[in-house]
Amino acid sequence: MEQDLKELLQSHGLKATPQRLIVLEYLIKHQTHPTAEQIHEDLENISLATVYNTLDKLVDSELVIAINDGSKRRYDYYGEPHYHVVNKTTGEIMNVDNFDFRPLMEAARKASGLNITGYKVEIYGVED
Ligand SMILES: [Zn+2]
Asked: 112 CA to middle of ligand 1, Å?
């Protein structure tokens, strides 16, 4: 696992520092969209400032995305593309991967002339 994570970081242009390895591994294992504070509480040896700095680097590399649930910034491992359904009643964010976004990517490529490198989709709903 550790070697794979080192390669994953390096392939996204980041040096594999111990903090990056620990935070990335945490996000891969906890697909619950934690906040920086939650990550810091679980990883007691890393200061909150370091958690924030590490998350910023991981977000820059596009391995991790930041999601705003309306009140807090949450973090998510994004090595496997998926979309989010946000329950506005509870604030829960679900990972869902049951939809083929390739036609949308193709339409975006045609419209923009760009090489499309990724997507972020958030769908919102409330409970009855
Ligand atoms: Zn997610």
From this structure: 26
CA of 106 to the centre of ligand 1 (A): 22
C-alpha 17 to ligand 1 mean position (Å): 24
Token readout for 96 is 């869902």
Q: What is the mean pLDDT of residues 14-37?
A: 95
Separation of CA 120 and ligand 1 centre (Å) = 10
Task: Give residues with Cβ within 8 angstroms of 65, minimum separation 6.
Answer: 59, 75, 76, 78, 120
Ordered domains of the chain (ranges, CATH): 2-77 (1.10.10.10), 83-125 (3.30.1490.190)
Q: What is the pLDDT of residues 64-88, one digit of tens each?
A: 999 887 788 999 999 888 899 999 8
Average pLDDT of every residue of the chain: 92
Integer Cα distance of 27 and 23 in angstroms: 6
Q: What is the pLDDT of residues 34-51, one digit of tens each?
A: 999 999 999 988 999 999
